[in-house]
Amino acid sequence: MNIVVGVTGGIAAYKSVQLVRLLIKAGHEVTVVPTEDALRFVGLPTWEAISRNPVTTSVHDDVAKVRHVALGQGADLVVVAPATANTIAKMSAGIADNLLGTTLLATEAPVLIAPAMHAEMWRHPSTQANIATLCSRGVRIIGPAVGELAGGDSGPGRMVEPEDVADAALALLAPRDLEGMRIAISAGGTREPIDPVRYLGNRSSGRQGVALAAEAAVRGAEVTLVAANVAGDVLAEAQHPSIRILQAGTAAELGRVMADAAASADAVVMAAAVADYRPLEVADRKLTKDAGGIASIELVENEDIVAGLVRTRRDGQVVVGFAAETPGAEGDQDELLARARRKQKRKGVDLLVVNEVGWERGFEKGHNAVMMIGSDGDVVSTASGSKREVAAAVLDALRPLWTAIRNEE
């Protein structure tokens, strides 16, 4: 595939050297189109050496080959990383005053951008309006991340890591093998209030569920994503015309919203981490130590959402559950697998995705490792890598289940 990587004038340009390397390593032809300002951060010889292709910033080079439009016409994908506030504004307005701008106007290929700027610039209403405009046109957005910025500042605006951009880019080149499929996906972790200040919760960031939604959408599915307490920077990956985002807070709210979403879905994927218990009573005011109000909390069990979705599923619907499990004593994997098989049988899901978690793995991490258990208890697949790569593997396992049901009908 032919990929054009546009690089704009931000300090994060150095990250795109690794991005280009990853795309070439994946077997793709890459042409780098930097802006003049981008070359102030990373020089032209570096881009030519890493891409193995000639690099120019001018629309006046290779005029006989009409290079200013040929690059866009021949691209299977265009990635802009980093995408500064200035370039995003130009894209929104359709301004083409350099080779990258003409390439973007001339292409009919998917476009992915990785914003990078100071937090104030990212939050500015004009930038947010420009991002909304690009999303409405089908441009895919990844990030920005929250973290340390140039000059010692911190906040939203940091370009996501090149590995994440590469994952998102390669996903856009994937076949649209889920065309016509409607999927309801949950993400995040529920929170059960104790009082107006405190809650019982878990460490789930929602990244795996969001990655599933993003991957399903680029493969052609219509997605309803039910987000339970997922941060905005994580949800940014799910900005796609084929993804509808709904919100939920508690397990009860998540159950209601997922039941509504599942009513018209061909597949349901319960990736959210749901609290098993909730406080029997929720205090109207903050409980204090001096009043003895938090010495003990009586808990009651929450409804098993995925088991309920299995009981009420409509004909032909595939239900996928997730199980976060810790290994047995001294890392006993056999015990973990036995627990997972019992859980699959108890819940009745068509596919149970089991990921091993602990203090240093699983939740709040960029990578994941899972095994998938079918309805007969057999391990049908395993996957590890970025959460986007794991998402692709889960959907690969889900698709034949959906196809088999459709063929039966």
Automatic annotation (TrEMBL):
| Catalytic activity of the protein | (R)-4'-phosphopantothenate + L-cysteine + CTP = N-[(R)-4-phosphopantothenoyl]-L-cysteine + CMP + diphosphate + H(+); N-[(R)-4-phosphopantothenoyl]-L-cysteine + H(+) = (R)-4'-phosphopantetheine + CO2
Q: Which Pfam families match?
A: DFP, Flavoprotein
In the record, what terms sit under GO molecular function?
A: FMN binding; metal ion binding; phosphopantothenate--cysteine ligase activity; phosphopantothenoylcysteine decarboxylase activity
Domain Flavoprotein as annotated: residue spans: 1-171
| Chain positions covered by the region annotation Phosphopantothenate--cysteine ligase | 183-409
For this chain's record, the cofactor binding note is: Binds 1 FMN per subunit.
Q: What are the UniProt keywords, alphabetically? A: Decarboxylase, Flavoprotein, FMN, Ligase, Lyase, Magnesium, Metal-binding, Multifunctional enzyme
* Region Phosphopantothenoylcysteine decarboxylase, annotated ranges: 1-182
**Pathway given in the UniProt record:** Cofactor biosynthesis; coenzyme A biosynthesis; CoA from (R)-pantothenate: step 2/5; Cofactor biosynthesis; coenzyme A biosynthesis; CoA from (R)-pantothenate: step 3/5
Q: Name one GO biological process term.
A: pantothenate catabolic process
Binding-site residues, CTP: D276, K286, F322, K343, K347
Q: Cellular component terms, GO, for this chain's entry?
A: phosphopantothenoylcysteine decarboxylase complex
Domain (DNA/pantothenate metabolism flavoprotein C-terminal): give its ranges.
178-398
Q: Which PANTHER family match?
A: HOMO-OLIGOMERIC FLAVIN CONTAINING CYS DECARBOXYLASE FAMILY (PTHR14359), PHOSPHOPANTOTHENOYLCYSTEINE DECARBOXYLASE (PTHR14359:SF6)
Q: What does this protein do?
A: Catalyzes two steps in the biosynthesis of coenzyme A. In the first step cysteine is conjugated to 4'-phosphopantothenate to form 4-phosphopantothenoylcysteine, in the latter compound is decarboxylated to form 4'-phosphopantotheine.
**Similarity annotation:** In the N-terminal section; belongs to the HFCD (homo-oligomeric flavin containing Cys decarboxylase) superfamily.
Please state what the protein is called: Coenzyme A biosynthesis bifunctional protein CoaBC
Which species is this UniProt entry from?
Answer: Microbacterium hydrocarbonoxydans
